[in-house]
Amino acid sequence: MGETLNIISFTEWLSGAPGWLQSCPDWIQNFIFQCYQTFIYADRWKFFLSGLEITFIVTIGALLLGVIIGLLLAVIRTSHDLSVQKPNVILRILNAFANLYLTVIRGTPMMVQLLIMGFVIMVPKTDTGTVVCGIITLGINSGAYVAEIARSGIMSIDRGQMEAGRSLGFNYVQTMWNFIIPQAFKNILPALCNEMITLLKDTSLVSVIALRDVTKQAQNIVSITYQAYVPYISLAVIYLIIVIILTKLLGILERRLRNSDH
Amino acid sequence: MITDKTLIKVDGLKKSFKDIEVLKGINLEIKQGEVVVIIGPSGCGKSTFLRTLNLLERPTSGTINFDGVNITDPNTDINLHRQKIGMVFQHFNLFPHMTVLKNMTIAPVKLSKLSKTEAEERAMKLLDRVGLADRALSYPSQLSGGQKQRVAIVRALAMQPEVMLFDEPTSALDPEMVGEVLDVMKSLAKDGMTMAIVTHEMGFAKEVADRVLFIDQGIIMEQGSPAEVFGNPKSPRLKDFLSKVIS
Questions:
Q1: Per the structure, how many domains does chain A have?
Q2: What is the complex's ipTM, to 2 decimals?
Q3: Which of residues 6-25 of B touch A (CB under 8 A)?
Q4: Partners of residue B98 in chain A, C-beta under 8 Å
Q5: Which backbone phi and psi does B20 adopt, to 5 degrees?
Q6: Angle at Cα A171 formed by Cα A166 and Cα A177, nearest 5°?
Q7: I need a surface site. Which of A40, A45, B56, B144 has the fewest CB within 10 A?
Q8: Range(s) of the domain holding residue A99
Q9: Phi–psi pair at B105, nearest 5 degrees
Q10: Which CATH number belongs to the domain containing residue A181 in this structure?
Q11: How far is CA A44 from CA A13, A40, A48, A108, B141, in A?
Q12: What's the pTM?
């Protein structure tokens, strides 16, 4: 009976456990049993592993998409705001679009955006399709926030840098790319790092479009074992460890970029 | 070293910012090899005028011909012409995230298609000329103001421009560093570089200029050789200005 549902009862487990456990207090036995159920029995650690894979894929994909969208929006908005003459029609249309985008994306909850993308706009049928849907939704969402971060970064660079680049003969885009964006990037790295951490944690919402990320997998385990304590606490610890590692890595990158500042 | 060739020809140049007309019709010819120094009270439009010469400020009306091409025509590719017009700014505007050498080579490598080695060779020669060859691998933040401005000058020279524009190149410098920058500019003038210089250094203007322009109230109020302008000013505005700046 227990085998078919892929669960194991406490007494069944205890009878097969090593001798020293038999003499432990109840609560320790119970805790170890829960850990056993969550990670070891029926190779459930593989649930977490495959969930983490999805979480990472979605985070990295959404981050790349978000940075690209954010950078484009930021360049459009700053070019529009800083242009000396009246901006041309194309730039005005692009700017209006960028403002609309920022208003809509920042004005609606991420969960609602996921539901709309997953069940109204994209309606993915395959596993890959669902992953792509998750990446696009989170990327579009993150892009709106990165845009404002990047805009503040570009605005923080002295006008003289643009003039120096232009006076040497670089065009606007080349100047942005070679001189403004590298400096702006360095300035916004801490804020960008924050955004990346938020994004990583936000991927826990993708379970609503049936993506089996690490949060969804923990839920799955709970629905099998009916014990929430160890799976959810472990889930929190997993996110925490990833965030700590990320923070450290970005700290190293930041210090390396600061090399020219002496 | 002034030749007969007209390098820059400005006709009826006007520039307004919103409702304020800063330049009210400027006509000027600069010959190849000529050193033109522009003086005038602050806010008179002399910096704006210099910045229109490479279209960092777009004139409201009027034309600028550079080397026979009307660069104010919207169909002219201004980026190509800016490669031949070097500019030096009051606040240096070096790229702080690049070494001195990279500051000097990035434009020739990416724009005039020199190889990296060629560009570096040229850059090192130029740095050597201004006595900064040992600072090639420093970052701008490690240099003094005078050194920064010398680097800014050779950065512009690395593109082998036909004319150099200087926008108050010594105004942001500590007094003891002004000399080293002016020396570089003097040697450039001696080599026959065409130069347009906005400055408050009257002694320098007297020594180096072929022609001095006095801009006031948006027009060229008076111009002539340094001897004429400083020795025998005609307009009362210029007399007044000179009495204030020359102590």
A1: 1
A2: 0.91
A3: none
A4: 260
A5: -95, 120
A6: 95
A7: A40
A8: 53-209
A9: -100, -20
A10: 1.10.3720.10
A11: 16, 6, 7, 36, 56
A12: 0.80
